[in-house]
Queue: 3 jobs
Job 1
Amino acid sequence: MALKHVNAVIVGAGAGGGVVAKELATAGLSVVLLERGQWHSAADCRKDDLRNQRTTVLGNAFGPDDERNPRVFVDNRGEHIVLPSEGAYSNNAACVGGGTFSYGAQAWRYMEKDFRMRSTYGDVAGSTLEDWPIGYSDMEPYYEKAEWEMGVSGDDAANIFKAPRRKPLPMPPLPPAKEHQLLLPAAKRIGLHPFDIPMLRNTVPYNGRRSCMRCRWCVGFACELSARTGTHNTVIPAALATGHCELRTDAMARDILLDDRGHARGVAYFDAHNRLQEQTADLVIVSAGAVESARLLLNTRHRLFPHGLGNRYDWVGRNLQGHTYPGVSGLFDFDTFDDLGPGASIAICDFNHGNPGMVGGGMLANEFIRLPYQFMTQVPPWISRWGAEHKDFVRSAYKKTIVITGPVQEMPLWNARTQVDPKVKDHWGIPVARLSGGKHPHTLEIARFLAGKAEEWLKAAGATQTWKRIPPNTLSGGQHQAGTCRMGNDPKTSVVNRDCQLHEVDNVYVIDASVHVTNGGFNPALTILANAYRASGNLLKAWKGSKVSS
Amino acid sequence: MRRRTFFGVGLAAAAAGTAVTTTRSQPKGPWRFFTPEEAATVDAICECLIPADRDPGASQAGVVNYIDLQLTRPFKRYQKAYRQGIAAVDTVSRSQFSQPFVALSADRQVDVLKSVEKNSRGFFDLILNHTRQGFYGDPRHGGNRNMASWKMLGLPYPPVRGRMHYEDRPKEG
């Protein structure tokens, strides 16, 4: 039996897709929102330190599952099958809310220069660094909309580097924990400009949800109180409440359906019982995350698009980027741990731009609260990996460390990419994503530079010893994955236009971090949300004007 | 309860007679994947990786029970690595000291593991990570018996700051 035709089918109920569903459904369009994962609730906060989205040694709590969702990963040792719970997979949660269901919820606006990296810094040899086709001023109203409609807490008044904002944040920050109290005066002493991180987290009751209780189980876990804000507890329920949106979970998209003229007519997907379904629609919105969105386009083959939809000039899947995180640990001779979540609370933007000889930089902040097993990665290199010395260090240092880390804005690479594998297929017989490439050397130079700055901050706060971790030169992606369907004005050097519409097919949109040209020196969630509001607005204008139809 | 008491006594005996390794308590099953002999070897390896001192070590915390349980669950894919790895540890032990690993003194066991770390890094890192998980991870997964490591780290007991906690506290302004 054919499914009822709708105005729009959206693939992926994460940050981007959730916002689009709400905006379109509110405007009266009929919407089907497909999500390959499930709809978890606050009751799924199992406080399981070994099985969550951050520590996956016993699996991902919120998908995708290891049994049905392999990928192929290519590195200098060859190609291997990787599973979602393994690091090289570049996983982001597969569930209603996507990454926003279990993330740390930092809610950053990118800075003006983040949209104009090429104009600001010029060519970077070996990188596809480019400007966005839109600027900060195009995004500002939508950042504000995301902050107020979804709810952001924090206080960036002291951040003298921030781009101008018209309205302050709607909620105050949490009271400072011990780490914050140590880091704040230390940063000021060495001339930095610390402030409270903006967070998609209620610090007072907001939009009918409670405020954060400051538990230890934050990033990687479901929020037990639903005080942390994602699309699952804001825009998606709002979309459903309009009566115009239907959410289908356990729905794995196979490809986009095209008619003879190459116009999209819907999406083919496998339902919860592995039955192939065809959802026809006037509009197709791809919001599956940078890896899976590219995979869906590349798996959409047609006489007119033999190399995948939107891929005439071979840009789909290119420029996969996430964030390179240098980390510095500081050891103190007194307790710094007071068991108050979420941990991360104080940041500086002194080194996002204007660093001598550097193309951009990144924000630095204290790390989320460390659970005991997570602390294993904080043990310094001069301590034995095992035996009495290791145990003794963990015992004596667990409550006496602070970690500062931050996301380096990466130099995009043509060869850091998602393809579809010619041989390996998933549970449903769909060709899987094949990931390959590495990092640009300058990305690692910036990481080392930022680590040095983090070290100075920790020492100023009284750390007696510090040690750095610089990530290896391996492919970036992970939860901050972006870049694979670049937004641009020129169809020959980008996949979608500034409205996130495919250059090649006017009724297919990509609305998620795939369209990010560069990924800022910040967690990308708020930018994905804001851009989804912006793109939805433009889509609706076009819809009302000319009724894009099949 | 009975089992806990048994363990306490067994470890006290082991601690009292560290030189006489044969009095060491046998780890207690039921075993889902390991043979009793393999379990004893793994238990001894884990104890070298996280030894008892003024706080319990891997053996007392039941790390081998964690590994055994998980080898029938997400760690199924490591079953072969364990079967071969355990045998390899014993082979090294017999070639260096003419005895199975469990029969060696603690010092000699460490010597054997150093050699395994050097020559079979894959298996060594696997069991090291699993030992850390079983010792520092949540007891629900079969290790960290009596929350041994969490007590050692001085984490609140029980280590849940949850809804109860929220409701017990006066409302913050």
Job 2
Amino acid sequence: MSATASQAKPSAREATRHPAGIRKGERLAGWLFVLPVILILGVFLFIPVLMALWVSFSDWSGRGSPLAPGVGFIGLENYADITTGGGLAESNFGTSLRNNAWYVILVVPLQTALSLLLAVLVSRQILRGRGFFRTAFYFPSVTSSVAITVLWLFLFSTTGVVNQIIAWFGATGPNWFNEPRGLVHLALEGVGVTTPPPALTAGGFLGITWWDWIAGPSVAMFALILMAIFTTSGTFMLLFMAAIQSIDPSLAEAAMVDGANAWQRFWRVTLPQLRPALFTVLTLGLIGCWQVFDQIYTGTQGAPGNTTLTPAYLSYQAGFQDQKWGDGAAIAFILFLIIIAFTLLQRWVLRDKPVSRRRMRAYLPGRVTPGEAPTGAATQGEAAPAASAESKKGAAS
Amino acid sequence: MKQHMRAWLGTGVVVASAGLVLAGCSGTGGGGTSPSPTAGELTASSDPLTVMIGSSGDAETKAVTDAVAAWSSSSGTKATVVAATNLQQQLSQGFAAGSPPDLFYLGSDAIAGYAGNGSLKAYGDMLSNQSDFYPSLVQNFTFDGTFYCAPKDFSTLQLVINTELWSAAGLTDADVPTSWDDLASVAKKLTSGTTKGLVFNGEYARLGVFMAQAGGVLLTPDGKAEANSDANVEALTYVQDHLKDGSFAYAADVGAGWGGEAFGKQLGAMTIEGNWITGAMTADYPTIKYEVVELPKGPAGAGTLQFTNCWGMAADSPNQQAALDLVEYLTTSKQQLAFSKAFGPMPSVQSAAGEWKTENPALVAFLAGADYAQGVPTQAGASDVIAAFNTQLETLKTSDPKTILDKVQSNLEALK
Amino acid sequence: MSEQTLPAALPPIPAAAPTPTRTGRAGRRPPRARVVIAAIALYAALIAIALVYIYPFLVQVATSFKTDADATAAPVSLIPNPWSFAAYDKLFANSDFPLWFLNSAIVTVCVTLGRVFFVSLAGYALARLHFRGRATVFAVVVGVMAVPGVVLLIPKFLVLNQLGLYNTYIGMILPLLVDAAGVFIMKNFFESIPVSVEEQARIDGAGTFRIFWSVVLPMARPALITIVILSFQGSWNELAHFIVSASNPALTTLTKGVASLAAGALGSGNQYPLKLAAALIMTIPVAVMFFIFQRRIMNASEGAVKE
């Protein structure tokens, strides 16, 4: 009977399956089922990207349709305007890139480190009330960025909570969201460098002098950086916790037997095994950080002094407020390329590299000292993964 | 392989046809082929009107809504008032969508952009009360030689003084400053504790008064950039000196959102603000007693800034005839005086000046400013330059005025 | 953009982590005192950090009941002095806040229902139905997940415009109806269901849709709940899409409304209690959903590393 035949030999069924075969309706059903998804993704994702590409190459002025006959093709003029135009368009774009670059430089490592730390702490065996801590750290990630920005504006106002707490320690807090000076500049001032060296103010890139490029994030931007870390560390903490829980404990045991202390165990055994999770966290972090928009729209709108201007917000501003739709679309696409470049770069940096020859020498036959022999030979199965884990980490460091 | 190719082909066909459909939609329905009336004609239909305003608060929204409703019932054309949360954005979206509001607030700094891309209907010459408007306001809304829209009101900046702190510092009416030196010494006397002598927003829209008083302009009437003139440098240096010695301060630096808030919280004994200060004081700081006096004269005489908005009319509006009628109604002397009473700004028609002075004797200084006030530059792209200028002004205390003004100059020159 | 859902795999993971046993080694157990000190240090650190995470929300609740002056004068205190309901009064009686709430609710409910339906359909098709180009479609879906949202701000507005959907509820709902990550989740889940169940139903004569609707879908409850939670969160907290899809004040959602409050609408002055009250109420539905389903949410997020 066909029933028993089908249940007895599913693999045979697989092999003989082809569209015109037994399940005629299946092909149609398949396409029908995915049709809504394809349509919506196509219309609201794929086509908009094409349309934006067209707008970025056109001189559409903002009235009527960009596909109307009167709109002309101007090639790379919009892109040239924002990268080499020499005017405000270029310096605004440069400023936004600088701001966002500093944001990424600070947020990604800090949020990765903090979420890893939290994950490690909350995963400790001796901890009770793990659920409470997980909830507490994850809750900010659930709230809307608009709500958190409103809260942050209150906390960091000139006479707000943060400054009051700082006052308890005897210092005066800065005028957070109104302070446009960069952290690096402030630090340099602290060590006595108050005027920029002429070499750095002579030249520049994208309309900003080199001195301004290294200004660091402004104090206002720093408040936003703290907010980003606050809201995303919970999500990444969960990612790391899952990864930590899936680590084979016998490796850590083997390392303990070999005499590694807790720090060495973490750095050389645990961390390399967290590589996939680390990779995910870094990728998501990078992609997210280059798209900061909601917080700027709600909170600072680029102020003070354009130091919280980001490319995503600049793209919106150029289009929706200044009616320079071509420039706005061009900025968005350049940002897209930047994100892709960073993701690829990060993928390349974290790739599995072959073991370096120096490291390899310790494990090649003929180099084993008598004291190490038992570890190498007796626990062959465990030592091999431990060795490769360590060598990978060693090669990567 | 064949399977994949057919799948790609299929997806591509779907996408391409969708794209063609979109292009087709735009061709027939969109702005490309809609009939635009020739310069002298206005469209007319029975479509209801939408009026979009950038309201300063409940008082203004209510006043405008009531006025429009009154016109609506007497003229028979329906009209709705929409208070925008983000006027610039909503206007841009409206124009791009082909469905802008019929009438809307339009600032003198925004007219260049919208006039330049054909979004506005130039109805200025069709106004029956055209000659009644102040000439400087008409100038602000003339683009490319065409008078585009009717100024709806205007404000000037003058000096607002907290009378209690004034007398507490031992000052009298004779001490009202008439020169820069007077202002500096008075501000010094008024500075004590957490109160600074003079507090104002750290932006061109306030510091510009000093530049005007020194005889400087950003752009000459024929469009030449003179941002880094000696007069402007002198003005900024004057402000910088007193920011440094603590008698002047920016509102943001004393923890206030704007000069009026600093004034209301007595973080500043004096401030430089416009007509809107009256509404804010009555609503938020009713206990503060204040008076408005004319700003002191600078090295080149009296100077201040004036701000004005007009009633912009969309070129795509289907019922411009009714819109024109509404504008004429809203700019009558009687209606403008009612608005003034409700939320503060001064009428843009000269015929209302006398009555306004009698109704508002304490605010006469604002109207006096109309004689010597400068408008903000209206050239296309100038508002961006001013925005950049403002960001540099935020750090005026620690930077060099000449460098700042040189940058503004180069930005302005790049506008051509 | 920060609300983008993580791709999450399904089966929940046990909460406790296995550890190396202390006794199974060459007798080197750390001294008792050291263990106690380590435990105290751990708790101290965690409690301190947890305080930093919780305190802002406590301040938010407290400040929403303060007067403007009190909020400025004593921001750190958690006790309002005096208690004032002025902020809530203004929000509910004197502003469009209830309208914003209603709009957000309408959009969120429609998006959630729609998403569950379409995403599970597509996930099932990609997992179980064989049709030409299936692999390509899946690759496209995965690829789409990589497009950063910022590129879509301006063009989505233009497309909605062209289609005549600008300033309509449909324009606000339709683009959010499909979520690539959701398709991914459902596909993964359906693949883990044994084929025999479907085989049986097919033998009994059921059509493809019938099998999907009556047999497989009820078994997908855990995954569906995850999709419901993620869509609810995503659409309730969405901002950029609502900015570009509508400008009519009657269509304002909570996110846009609260953002406009933050930028200074509804009068002058700082108005912190008002703004914080609005932000608080906006957070409540998502928080409630979070606390009810927290185990599932956190397990779903943890599973993302398995991709």
Job 3
Amino acid sequence: MKSYRILAVSALCCGLLLWTAAEAPAQAVVKVGNILPLSGPSASVGLQNKQAQDMAVQEINDAGGIKSLGGAKIQMLYADSESKPEKGVAEAERFINTEKVHILTGAWNSAVSYPVSAVAERYQIPFLVPVSVADKITEQGFKYVFRIAAKDSWWTRDQFAFLKDLQAEFNTKVSTLAFVYENGDWGKGFAEGWKKHAQAGGYKVVLDEPYPSTATDLSPVVQKIKRANPDVLLLTSNAADAILLTNTMAEYKVKPKAIIASGGGHADPSYLKAAGKNARHLFDIVEWETDVNKPGAKETNEKFKKLFGYNLTGESVDAYAAMYVLADALERAASTDPKAIRDALAKTRLTKGPAMIVGYDAIEFDESGQNKHAALVMVQVNDLGKGLERITVWPKASRRAGYKPVFPIP
Amino acid sequence: MIYLLEDAINGILMGSIYGLAALGLTLIFGVLKVINFAHGSLLMVGMYAAYWAVLLTGAHPYLALVIVLPLMFAFGYLLQAVVIQPIFKAEREVREPITVIIVTTGVWYILDNLALLVFGPQYRNIQDNPLRGKMIEAGEMLISVPKLWGFCAALVTAALVWLFLQKTRMGRAVRATSLDRDAASLQGINPYRIYNIAFGLGTAVAGVAGVALVPFYNVFPTVGVLFDIKCFIIVVLGGLGSIGGALLGGMIIGVIESVGPQFMTATWTEAIVYGLFLGFLFLRPSGLFGVKYDW
């Protein structure tokens, strides 16, 4: 037993030695500390983020690195947050103090990014946040936090704007709404936005129902939806409960005029597979869809799919674009000094290059560090003869050519 | 009124499946006197076994039992014989060795992460099976067919386990060991073999629960965790080691979860379930059918 242990330890040491030897820099490197949930409940999305960023970094390095820094390569360092705020903070401190990173990125979970942003601000290390959407992250008056994705409140705003346009387009009136959402920070945040917009829009809310995401049976919730009989149902769900809700609603024949979901579980690649035809006609809000009408988007997605076996998601596109935003800032800063990188990031105005596979036309940060151009699209799940797919329907300018949304659901 | 009846029926059906999941836990505890923290993971293994059996053969989900039952029994038997038994032997003097609990926790982590490695984090379910999405329409009421099957499976399994324990020689040996390990071994019963069999049996029952869940539930690596806590509450409610108690405890929880949300938000029913759990721990720690005084 003991000899095994010694063997294992020595093997590990050898591995570490080899690893450090291989990483010995031949030239200047830019160290990027990346905190992601690589195990625990968000492991699958954490991995999707990592793979998108790895692909971008590989492309940047292969194209000659950062030219204004003599071809310096970007070196990614990863830390696992396990979706835990305290773990994320500890890793951020380690990255800054021990690894001496020049910039931080991550951390997917809003609950982790929020405290990490305070650490970054304290040490004056720029923190580039691709996807954590909680409003408060960029509303602390910090100078070192930059976010690519649209914030929380924009999501609910756009869901209601879409609902309004939908009624006008199909001349069908929607008067009652039901809100069903997971009982976490994310779901409750959305519900608050919904309530505000529903009041402003003159809708009647017939059901306001949080549920535990860990529920093993959602038929009681589905029964409540059925009995409340809303015109439109708004959902915020994680993956397991999204699948369970969709299937249970089909069983109980719950058919509102439209179901509008909020990304998250409904955007998880395994959702469509597991919910199958029951997911048909669902509307979902996302940052990006594979059918987006932008040059290079298709090729990038194909390259990604070939490497990792699944499509890019809105979140992975933000993560991918973030690396090009960083490369652009480094190029202009011509320095690895965190202060100089920060100033360059603040002056970002990226309108071309691979990052422009995003659904909008420029990446530019406002005073608070929020990407002010970030926009969202609505998609509808439908089967056009090639299996279920997500089809962009809103804003109308981005709608897939020739597609007419199905509303109300037959 | 009709709504209440509909919800109560759904609660009883779903609850009996919770009870079925908890049955294996209570069985293993009754004999080994240790809480098996890996029980949820065993349920997860059972669900994956059922999932693959149905997917690859295309058979009726309950026909998968032919494969799942022996597989799960062997898995549980070997798990106990190879991993847990050495600890029992090392702690021979202790009646309820705490270290075994730690070992089962380790087994839980290893199984869940192995599943994550092998099958990936995706959520899976079987799209085309004869039970999926079927509903019985009784007037205005809708009753889920796969849950009804689960209910029957729970009753049949509980009856068979009870018959096995009461009527067979092996069952008597199991009961003897659970009453007094030393006295049983004086009668020529090898307690370690009985432990293996009890663990195998408990795992096989978790396999039945897996088969019952697969037609309408998702399979993913951490699915066991969702049921784990429920199983513990049910077992305490029904009385540790009691078969009928597990079923009844499951149904009580099922009915609370199903009827409760009609009067409050769904998140509150969780609080009620935990409140009930605490209440039982204070007032009747032996549960509904548990023995008041430990042997």
